Amino acid sequence: AIQQAHFSTLPTLGENFGHAIFEGLLAGLPVLISDRTPWRGLEAREIGWDLPLEQPEAFVRAIQQAVDMDQETYDRWSRKAWEYARDFKNDPALLEQTRALFV
Asked: I need a labelling partner for 38 at 20 to 30 A (CA). Which of 16, 19, 66, 97 fits?
């Protein structure tokens, strides 16, 4: 199912990490999420939008931007989403922090 998607959405009330968000990015899907997660500054990176739930019009604008996106722009955002997730996953500091949780 995720292979057939173009975007991933999770307008959540809150996430401590947001594994579904990370999975979307790792699949190369730009994400449309609320601003109540650790995943912030997405639009500036061209990997999605993190928007306030109190502003539904912002979600409408982002959805319209996604619908209107040409193929070249979408391909760039998709590539950047995957690269961002890949770099996050391969960050040695993240690996050490994860190990520290279990040691």
From this structure: 66
